[in-house]
Amino acid sequence: MYAFIDFLDSWYPLSTITKEALMKKIQIRYYQPRRFLRKQYDKSDKIFFIRKGIVHLYRKKEKTDWLSCENNVICPFNRFIMEEVSSVTYETLEPTEVQIINYNDCIELFEFEDFKNAVYRVIIDHLYKVSKFHADNVGYASKRYEVFIHHFPNIVNRVPIKVISTFLGVCPKTISRIKLSKK
Description:
The chain is α+β, with helices and mostly antiparallel strands. The protein has helices at about 5-10, 15-25, 75-80, 105-110, 115-135, 140-150, 160-170, 170-180; strands at about 25-30, 35-40, 45-50, 55-60, 65-70, 70-75, 90, 95-100. It contains eight helices and eight strands; from the N terminus they run H-H-E-E-E-E-E-E-H-E-E-H-H-H-H-H. It is elongated and about 55 Å long. It starts with a helix and ends with a helix.
């Protein structure tokens, strides 16, 4: 039922006490496509575990900053690291189920060292994935699309071409041509 707990437990073993405390804090929500989980500068910061669906993260609608899908965590990382309000909007691209923990509940759960350890490992892994993607994402449009497929193989056919193109910094027609040439 709580895939988020299993996910964290896979990063660092959680005690039964921690799991029970976490179960009391998790909220489950369902969203239709094009719904906002979080709007830019929204102070209601939450940690979202995506159980099902895809979420598009952006500061400006015309430029995708990141895409996240099943078995991934999204949250305003700068809130946790620098205690700043985030300028990122989270919008669903397809029917999405998320498991949510409020920021203040998360801070309260940090009294459990195993929870804190798991959360920080997830944050470090996410930051690594983002930096690796951006380091690999250089060159011609076809190369950037190949990098996208490599980093996001399970969502490449589920994300609209327009979103992919804003993520890669190329026009939608170019992405369409690249996809056709790969067939």
